[in-house]
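Example record for the data management plan.
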Amino acid sequence: MGIALGLAVVLVLGPLANALTPPHAIDIGVTFSARYARAFGLDAWSTYTRLLDELDIRTVRLPVYWDEVEPRPGEFDFSTLDAYIGAAAARGASVMLVLGYKQPRWPECYAPVWARDLPTDALRQRILGLVAAEVVHARAYSSITTWQVENEPFVHFGLCGSFDVLTPEFVSQEIALVRTLDPRPIMVTDSGELSSWIPVFDLPADEFGATLYRDLWFPAWGLWQHPIPAWTYTLKDRLVRAWAGRSGPTLLSELQAEAWFESVDLWNVPPRLQRQLFPPDLVLTQHLDYARRTQFPTVYLWGVEWWYWMRAQGYPEYVETARRAIATDPASRAIAAP
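Corresponding structural encoding:
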């Protein structure tokens, strides 16, 4: 009864409280996955350089997929990663690098073929070797401002076996390893909607990132928007930090800025339907306004590859809406070049 009453209060008073929560200036960055861009049939490199130039991005979060950088045991190839970091640095943009086993974008875990059947302990040792190689190689770049260790390590989503690899103890070991190799801040992330955040706040990281997804499409009932007001994210952050006795910044590591269809790849959904259900005013303007009301200082937009694919399908307004949003946000323009 108490839970039902609390939910009713949130549903009734939430929109009012959200309207009364003042928006806050934020730094706006993007997550870019070359792998995801290629899945859309885009040229990943040209898409990346275009977004840096056209959107004037000042900060970008880059995944590092294990099967791409260590195709054979102990043989690392970071040449492609170097090019992407270098292109950002040449334009005065900073980089957050995602280290380890679990990365942004489905299927989340990217073990190379040779590592997929390793026992858990052996797999962990290989992951530690990967993390060490990534940091030792990339620490020469002053444009890297933050290391992200794993991506939502405790969310059981993706093709990651039995999910017994990324325990709190092991992720803490990864963080300790990174700290011995480089002094820059370390961030960990969690689901904004599907987790209590308590396990990640027990980790010895410096920063915390939460995802924020608002609009989903399900075959059974169509488009659904969760009714949680923006202030609940702020309240959750403060309560968990008080409980854990932890200070430090919280940011939005993934803000939904693309269409979302349950169990359907976006390139298999008619672009006209996506434009109808997920217009730019919804996934960019409204979602950014919502993010500003959480009072978190930084947000990484999720979906830049989709914007450029939609532009190729005849819908350039996503790129243009994002460009205006980034250009008019004073906090984003104030980020200094590294």
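Summary line stored alongside the record: The chain has one domain: 23-333.
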